[in-house]
């Protein structure tokens, strides 16, 4: 019966228990009595369970369009967009929440929206739905909503819930644990962080009852943005009670999501990047074409994922990534020293193009060119292999040691051999033949080589490579904490 209901959407809307045959009604009554529910509630429960199992197109609508397009091109999914559930309360500031939806979407967030009954006095479901890009949710007892999504699922499928405007009435209900409408039922069922953006007349905000509720909500772990001081909607009124501006709320949302969804929170990540410069004399050196773009992008992505990141960088033109401790070095030996000093770490990623050799007899003074004199002979000695040294450490070996293999031929085969020789866990192999434009360029094509096989990644920007790597290592650390 349930399958049939899902196949025939139009039938769902007109389903009443009276239309069922006698045997089914009897069964339902028995089941309802056993579970202490009304027959209607029993039907509702059965359908909700079936919807949970079957999934629904509605859920696909919540997949951001960019992600759908990647999937249709057969490209691997990026880390999923963070999901924000916006509850719009009934206050004059509700009109600003339409702009807030736009601000949240600009940040790549997937937004769902609930309107309270009172909010519908200020913004229409049609307007909010048009900006969100899907219908908005409004009614706790709307069978169409409950059958496919349902309040528990609305609560569960949000990384963050934002209530804007959070009216005095709505906050009082939340503080008291009421579940009298869809918004409050979702909030009561929510386990994700909730951000409240209060908006009300200054006298209502200052009222002892409101302040008692605010204190209770703060103690219960709710986050607040605003209210701010300023003009009220009512003519001539000003004071503390204006809803925070959409940009300020969106900024707070980003901050909370970074904290909440930081997959590398508490992890120490060490990254090497760029070339090394090996002196010939005080003014000349041996170098390579590495730009540091890939290593720096990895350090930035690890920091965005909440890790405590140390980046050991050779001489590069790219700026230090934000939120990263960057140590600048010149030579391979300085790089090794800095890496050892930065231990312990949970993960070490060696993206630097370390010079294999240095000049054994580097001059302390500038080598002079003199007429009739023989050209200087440079004798080279091998530099320490930083990756291999760290991967073979008996103590303080990071849990995951990751190297790069810049090859110009037999990329995967050479990388496999390197994995074993260097003793590392993963190698990101790339073809750096001049025609690929990878060395110094903005894009990269990686093959991930691990003990279990070779996985080709699609051509993508160095930032996307960085995010893909961070997502992979977050998964690996989750499996083996
Ligand atoms: O041996 P090859 O240079 O191809 O290995 C590349 C990997 O080894 C990269 O991860 C690079 O950062 C690392 N490496 C190193 N120290 C060296 C040479 C390479 O850490 N002296």
Quickly describe the structure.
The chain has 481 residues and is an alpha/beta fold. The strands form 6 sheets. The protein has an 8-stranded mixed β-sheet with strand order 12-11-8-13-16-17-19-20, sandwiched between helices.
Descriptive overview:
This protein has 481 residues and is of the alpha/beta class. 41% of the residues lie in helices and 19% in strands. The protein has 20 helices and 21 strands. The strands form 6 sheets. It has an 8-stranded mixed β-sheet with strand order 12-11-8-13-16-17-19-20, with helices on both faces. β9 and β10 form a beta hairpin. α3 crosses α4, α7 runs parallel beside α8 and α7 packs across α15. The longest helix has 18 residues. It binds cytidine-5'-monophosphate. Cytidine-5'-monophosphate binds next to α18 and β16.
How is this fold's topology laid out?
Layout: H1 2-7, H2 9-13, H3 22-35, H4 39-54, H5 57-61, H6 65-72, E1 83-88, H7 94-106, E2 110-115, H8 125-132, H9 143-148, H10 151-156, E3 160-166, H11 168-176, H12 182-189, E4 193-198, H13 202-206, H14 208-219, E5 223-224, E6 228-231, E7 238-242, H15 246-260, E8 268-273, E9 278-279, E10 285-286, H16 293-304, E11 308-313, E12 325-328, H17 332-342, E13 347-350, E14 357-359, E15 380-382, H18 386-391, E16 400-407, H19 411-422, E17 426-431, E18 443-444, E19 446-450, E20 453-456, E21 460-461, H20 462-479
Parallel strand pairs: 1-2, 1-3, 3-4, 4-5, 8-11, 8-13, 11-12, 13-16, 16-17
Antiparallel strand pairs: 6-7, 9-10, 14-15, 17-19, 18-21, 19-20
Helix pairs in contact: 3-4, 7-8, 7-15, 11-14, 16-20
The chain binds cytidine-5'-monophosphate.
Cytidine-5'-monophosphate is lined by residues 272, 332, 350, 352, 354, 356, 383, 385-387, 403-406, 418.
């Amino acid at each position: 019966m349930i399958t049939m209901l899902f196949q025939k959407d139009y039938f769902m809307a007109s389903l009443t228990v009276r239309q069922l045959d006698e045997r089914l009604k009897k069964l339902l009554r028995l089941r309802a009595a056993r579970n202490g529910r009304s027959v209607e509630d029993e039907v509702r429960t059965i359908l909700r369970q079936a919807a949970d199992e079957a999934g629904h197109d509605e859920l696909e609508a919540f997949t951001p369009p960019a992600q759908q397009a990647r999937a249709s091109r057969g490209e691997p999914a990026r880390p999923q967009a963070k999901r924000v559930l916006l509850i719009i309360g009934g206050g004059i500031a509700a009109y600003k929440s339409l702009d807030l939806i736009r601000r949240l979407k600009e940040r790549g967030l997937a937004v769902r929206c609930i309107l309270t009954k009172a909010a519908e006095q200020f913004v229409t479901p049609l307007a909010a739905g048009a900006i969100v890009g899907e219908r908005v949710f409004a009614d706790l007892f709307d069978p169409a909503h409950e059958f496919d999504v349902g309040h528990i699922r609305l609560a569960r499928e949000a990384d963050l819930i934002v209530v804007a405007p959070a009216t005095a009435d709505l906050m009082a209900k939340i503080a008291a644990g009421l579940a009298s409408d869809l918004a409050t039922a979702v909030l009561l069922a929510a386990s994700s962080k909730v951000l409240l953006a209060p908006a009300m007349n200054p006298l209502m905000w200052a009222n002892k009852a409101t302040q008692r509720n605010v204190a209770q909500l703060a103690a219960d772990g709710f986050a607040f943005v605003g209210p701010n001081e300023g003009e009220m909607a009512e003519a001539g009124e000003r004071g503390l009670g204006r809803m925070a501006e959409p940009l300020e709320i969106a900024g707070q949302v980003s901050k909370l999501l970074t904290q909440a969804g930081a997959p590398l929170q508490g992890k120490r990540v060490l990254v090497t990047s760029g070339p090394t410069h090996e002196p010939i004399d005080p003014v000349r050196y041996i170098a390579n074409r590495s730009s540091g773009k890939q290593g720096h992008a990895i350090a930035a992505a690890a920091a965005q994922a909440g890790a405590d990141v140390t980046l050991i960088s050779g001489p590069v033109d790219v700026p230090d990534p934000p939120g990263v401790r960057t140590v600048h070095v010149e030579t391979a030996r300085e790089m090794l020293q800095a890496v050892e000093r930065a231990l312990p770490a949970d993960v070490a990623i060696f993206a630097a193009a370390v010079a294999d050799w240095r000049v054994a007899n580097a001059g302390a003074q500038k080598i002079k060119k003199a007429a009739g004199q023989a050209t200087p002979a440079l004798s080279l000695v091998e530099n320490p292999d930083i990756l291999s040294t760290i991967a073979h450490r008996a103590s303080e070996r990071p849990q995951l040691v990751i190297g790069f293999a810049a090859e110009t031929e037999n990329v995967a085969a050479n990388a496999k051999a390197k994995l074993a020789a260097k003793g590392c866990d993963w190698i990101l192999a790339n073809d750096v033949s001049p025609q690929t434009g990878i060395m110094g360029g903005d894009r990269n094509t990686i093959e991930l080589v691990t003990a279990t096989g070779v996985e080709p990644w699609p051509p993508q920007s160095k930032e996307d490579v960085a995010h893909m790597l961070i997502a992979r290592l977050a998964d690996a650390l989750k499996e083996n904490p």
